[in-house]
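Supplementary Methods S3. Complex input for the adenosine-5'-triphosphate-bound model.
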Amino acid sequence: MMNDLDYNFYRVLFEDLDPARLMKRFLELLLKIQNVERGSIWIREKDHFVCVESLGGPSQIDIIKGASIHADEKSIVGWVMENGRMTIAEGGKDPRHFKAFEKHMQLKSALILAFPLILRDGQVYGVVQIVDTSAGGSRLNLDDHYLRILKSIVDMGAIAINNALQHTDQIARNRKLEQTLREIRNRIQIIGQSASFLEAMKKVRDYARTDFPVLITGESGTGKDLVAMALHNLSSRKDKPFVVQNCSAIPETLLESELFGYKKGAFTGASDDKTGLLMAATGGTVFLDEIGDMSRLLQSRLLRVIQNKEIKPLGESNTHKIDIRIISATNKNLNEAVKEKTFREDLYYRLNVLPLHLPPLRERKNDIPLLLKYFIKRESLELGHFQKRISDEALSCLVDYRWPGNIRELENFVKYILSTVDGDMVGVTDLPDNYKHPAHRQLPGGESLPFADGAPSGQPADPAGRPDFPFTGLTWEALDKAYVRHLLEKNNWVVTRAARDAGMNRSTFDSRMKKLGIRK
Ligand SMILES: Nc1ncnc2c1ncn2[C@@H]1O[C@H](COP(=O)(O)OP(=O)(O)OP(=O)(O)O)[C@@H](O)[C@H]1O
Ligand SMILES: [Mg+2]
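Predicted complex, serialized as structure tokens:
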């Protein structure tokens, strides 16, 4: 009887999200309710019905679990799938019975009770069979009321199983997405199509075939680190270490021990031998970033290493042969530094065998839309967001913008808009003020700034073809303010340069800024 059920079937159905375990427990529950030993669960997969769980089959030749029946074949499973109704069938006699499976079994099915597994929307995705193998099928309780209660348990089970299957499917899909994301993140993608950029990339490929030192120059954020790594990855040293040392961020003595290493006891505090990076990178590439900031003392030591291809760690008497390729980078003008004697000329020529200049973003404007698209795609994927689009008008502002921080600034800009813009279209009003066209910019008084690169713009021309006078409605002071701000922005807020553009000296320009209340 159903009342005798010592099972808490709610727990069976709802506490397990593992489909295989859940189906087994579900089937056990049904068999227990009907007091029989044999049963199976079938799921539709394209044009087949596959048995995903089977209990009570003869153990050595349990050919049922994992078996499949073609949808065109006559079978009870197929009939229930198609009709979406429960059925009772006599094994061997019912014309729908698919007998092939039972050929080798000692205990044949006498009576088969089959229920559809139905989703909330009515779709039948599977079938559960409860099989009585006793003579004449006398054990199954076929009382109408009893079967109705059984059916409602099966209906609940059907939903629970489907939830578990979808949950597992979702986990598998998430894993796959995470994997793809990891691959995307680890892959070095260098984006650009402008002529000057492609020229630089060709050099990267050419240089990668040699072992000569490369000096990468370019403003901050133009991709020097990225390109150095790409160069290493394209070279025959790619499976050997790629070691990076920033020469500007740390004190001279620390940089010295990082690069050249030392012997235990070489100085107070040297309690162990330390292998320097130049030695650790053997066979590979050393990337010396911000080389322009290296002290004269270390410049001499580095020069010696390059000339002799050997290294002598501090406090050690022996020298070690090393085989490294040196890539260095700077955003300083090393030529100037050589003239000013802050950088050794001989070292400069040793490092600058293969020069590689990365152009600033404002000199390759047609890469801007491409880079925006790339970063939006990458970051949206990471955030799990839909990809926002940028309106034509906003894009034209961004292409005109000078990007003093180059690609790093653009990358940060994308993170900013993805975090702050709610809709899926980024418009001009979403842009921070300094990214807008001068014509879109609001002055403190609410007037718009009428300059773009020194020329009045954003104003309609009059029908006679003469440009309309763009300053209408502006007070003298607002105009003055707009002009000073324009010059400052044009010169990245370097006051001396803005003053030069205005044709005045710095202190006059400074006091004008003060008077107008413009602060850096
Ligand atoms: N062409 C490019 N395509 C895709 N991403 C790029 C490209 N160039 C640079 N980046 C990305 O822009 C950021 C800045 O690049 P990177 O650190 O290489 O610049 P940098 O020239 O070394 O700057 P700094 O002088 O400040 O050290 C990095 O996140 C980098 O991945
Ligand atoms: Mg860098």
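The radius of gyration is 38 Å. The domain at 2-169 is CATH 3.30.450.40 (Beta-Lactamase).
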